[in-house]
Amino acid sequence: xxxxxxxxxxxxxxxxxxxxxxxxxxxxxxxxxxxxxxxxxxxxxxxxxxxxxxxxxxxxxxxxxxxxxxxxxxxxxxxxxxxxxxxxxxxxxxxxxxxxxxxxxxxxxxxxxxxxxxxxxxxxxxxxxxxxxxxxxxxxxxxxxxxxxxxxxxxxxxxxxxxxxxxx
Length: 168
Fold this sequence. Notes:
- This protein has eight helices and two strands, in the order H-H-H-E-H-H-H-E-H-H.
- It is mainly α.
- The protein has a two-stranded parallel sheet.
- It is globular.
């Protein structure tokens, strides 16, 4: 990873984390706060760890976020586990999210870059496959817009949402 890419990732992580911390002064809507939280906690660290691996995932840059997502979830799980092992509540990471989000970018910047190709060339996703993925995403977005959230008496969402305060 080049220094320019690492610095861009560090800057994006810190700016978004600080914007999230200052949300009361910015007055961000809940949906925007949720998106920024997802980017800071999961997706940006996942992209950093993917870059640290030095590999090109199948599908290239078009599907890189799909490969970065589980890496970001693993990063967040490692942070929660480390706080549990330290005997501290994981909510104490919230004020430090800007600094904690920089760590994967530093790992990516400092790691040696083995070039292991998993499949095709990075941009060689067939046009038909890209069209199928985009159309599935459009149908899912339309469906979610029509249906709304699944928070109701008939879903188990209240059970999961009620679990989060009990974890902290």
